[in-house]
Amino acid sequence: MGLFNRIKEIRNKESSNANTRPAILASTYNKVNRRFISSTDASSYMAKNMHKFYITSSKFSKGVQIKNLLRKLDITIPKSGFIYFLDEFKNLDYDGEIINSVVDYSVILDNSIYDMNEIFFNPKEGPGFKNMSSDYNKEMLAVLDGIELLIYEIHKKLAKSSRDDKSKYIRFFEDMIDRKAEHFEEALQRILFFNQLLYQTGHSLNSLGRLDKVLEDLYFDDLNSGFITNQDAYELVKDFMKALHSYSWYKVDDASSLSSQVITLGGKYSDEFGQYYFYNDLTYMFLRASGELDFNDIKVALRISYETPDDLIKLALDSINTNTVYIEDGVALESNIDSNIIFSHDETVIDKLIDFGYSKEDAYGYVISSTLEPTFLSSLEANNLASFSLLEPLNKIFEMESKEQIDSIADFDSFMDIYKYNLKNEINAVIEKVDATQWNSDPLLSLLTKESYHHQMDISQGSSRNNNYGIRVYGLENAVNSLYNLKKFVFEDKIIGLRDLNKMRSNNFKKKKYHDIYALLKNNPNRFGSSNQEIIDLSNDIISYLEDHVKEYENSFDGRLKFGLSAPKHMVENDKQASFDGSLKNTLPERELLSLNDTNLDSFDFASKLDYGQSGFNGNMIELNLKDPKDIPEFFVKAIGIGFNQLQINLIKEEIIVKENEE
User: Fold this and answer.
1) Closest CA to 56 of 44, 40, 72
2) Which of 559, 583, 607 is a domain's end point?
């Protein structure tokens, strides 16, 4: 078997954190394959460049490995715009799950490399003063050495380049060594440089935090001094986002298939005088640029509250991109219709965070992670450690119980008891998996985490103040609809027996004689998202059961466990089987296209009646797929009043594929 056939075989079998050369090689092939689209071209490119392939040696400490990695990078100077590059053939070895934390970029704007070196090499006071020769300090100094060496190499490459503006960028990189950031454009370049370091060291899910807040002072200093104009700043914001968009083929996370860089904007805050809404010129600029550039891999998360200005909401809604769904033979083909804008409702989210146990300061300062949950800067908040389907406990009833046992189930309450028993087993299995997580040591993230310095510990050892874990539970909509159909048609109306209905499901409802029953299941008007009280009660019963079985969990860092229920309007692929809600085996997830009218507010009304308890806030997004955007503003204001956690509005244009006549 040839090398690249072997790569293709292993690339989807190895776990994302497998510490093996084949797994890292497979990940590299994934990147290259996305870059070239054609597997033939990707294999050819890999073959020609295998001499460049490099993985750091685990015999060295992680800090020294990062230093060695940065020394090996092939530096590419783009022809224009900000300096930003990634080397797909250079890889950091890792020994555990990689931490994808949102970096506090103010640390690198307010400090030079020399400033940080001084903290660890020659501390005059503070926690490091008594531990100057500690392993932690040595790791930080090794990373700083590597960063400084890379900056000098970029300097040399820039000096040899033909760029007309190279002197400006040479100065930006020189100033990283011995000055804090002094100007807006320089700050953008510095953020991009450290963002690129995160990707190069294996962090595949990078949210950028609240950039309008982080960059506010430098922007207004430059604006008020006449150093830049508002239009200059807007062009720089667009160039910044173009740089982030580059290497999009590199940035897809192999485990989740996500490629989502999230910029959080706006947000409610409070002080001793009251509560206010934070926003500035940059909030508008990033939103406007997102709409103009239309990059699906860069999402803007706008935190909204009752005080959010109307014109800011209107701009956000106007900036939502429109995606095309291709229709062939009346069926929608798989398409990426995800919006570039999401909304997070501070009036709901902040209270949930405080209720869970986060400090008021942290709750008001939350950001949105790349996996679209509320999270915090420089913390071990692992939001998607594991996931499971709420359909699986239902399917297992028919896989594990005997015919006699199934026939003996007398009523729906007894059926739910068995479902919950299986659900408890699923939860326990996930908790066991979560508890076994071993984290990759991460001196680069630790360097950018103030609390790591305070505790003189790597972030992987639990040095941050927030170390909670999260799991994603999916299929709530499918499970509720399936269970309600069983309750209605099997146990109440007695239209069909339990085993007979399962036989039809196992057959994927293919036989003609099954079609009438299938129509009953598929077209039951009392479904998830409706105002039916039984549906709401059934949903809350399942959520409450989840809450009861995760709320006592505590990890080794004194962190707790939170769960999210994915997007209620997004139908999952049903565990490779048909389900009792009328979803068929191997059918693409159904994304219902909603026409825009007042009844659509039922989705928000329904979501507002779901009781997530203390732990159930780890991403509960409402997803609306709309064809007609003309009345969205009025509709959106009503939705804010009802309340939601997160909202994504996907604007869709349908295009019919017409097949050519075959001779």
Assistant:
1) 72
2) 583
